[in-house]
């Protein structure tokens, strides 16, 4: 399956409800992922999840944004026809007037190939740690492997992302 790339000046945008169901996707999202708008609205965001993505990364991502913080992450996604594409995502929560989270918003740019090579090596390590485990147990193991790795390097995931 082929790798898809998108232009440096393009941004893939989507918004979700607090549970991760897609409520908005821009043209670039639909083109790169290969879906029509009606096929994604209301669906969980994991419809574009690539099986090579470690569960632990999503555990960290959700933990960060549920706490009301922004998160930067490299994510490998899968298009409708099975092609894959890397993104550097910036995900932010939106708060209602009562202070609760009412939606999440993700802006994604096309990452530099050198950064992708480095993050792909880390993700392969996390997948190996998760191998043979299912669902929450895999996420827990991958998450702890990632956190240990970052702890030893003395950086947060965001700092790690920007050092690539
Ligand atoms: C705003 C927002 C954007 C997201 N974007 C993606 C994405 O591009 N690709 C992806 O695989 N998961 C994305 N996720 C995470 C998914 O909700 C989901 O946690 C992930 O695909 C893993 O699926 P699973 O939780 O069923 O294992 C996003 C979540 C939010 C809140």
From TrEMBL:
Query: Per the record's keyword annotation, is Transcription included, yes or no?
Result: no
Keywords (alphabetical) are: Plasmid
Gene3D superfamilies assigned: PAS domain
Q: Which PROSITE patterns match?
A: PAS
Keyword Plastid attributed: no
Ranges of residues in domain PAS:
17-68
Instruction: Supply the Pfam families for this chain.
Output: PAS_3
Write down the CDD domains for this protein, in alphabetical order: PAS
N-terminal signal peptide: none
The protein's name is PAS/PAC domain
């Amino acid at each position: 399956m082929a790798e898809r790339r998108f232009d440096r000046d393009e941004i893939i945008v989507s918004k979700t409800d607090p549970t991760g169901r897609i409520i908005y996707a821009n043209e670039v999202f639909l083109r790169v992922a290969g879906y029509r708008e009606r096929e994604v609205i209301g669906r969980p965001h994991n419809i574009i999840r690539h099986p090579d993505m470690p569960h632990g990364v999503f555990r960290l991502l959700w933990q960060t944004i549920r706490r009301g913080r922004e998160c930067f992450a490299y994510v490998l996604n899968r298009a409708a026809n099975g092609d894959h594409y890397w993104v550097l995502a910036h995900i932010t929560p939106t708060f209602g007037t009562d202070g609760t989270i009412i939606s999440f918003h993700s802006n994604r740019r096309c990452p530099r190939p050198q950064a992708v090579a480095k993050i792909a090596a880390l993700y392969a390590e996390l997948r190996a740690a998760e191998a043979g485990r299912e669902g929450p147990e895999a996420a827990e193991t991958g998450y702890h492997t990632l956190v240990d790795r970052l702890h030893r390097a003395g950086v947060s995931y965001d700092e790690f992302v920007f050092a690539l």
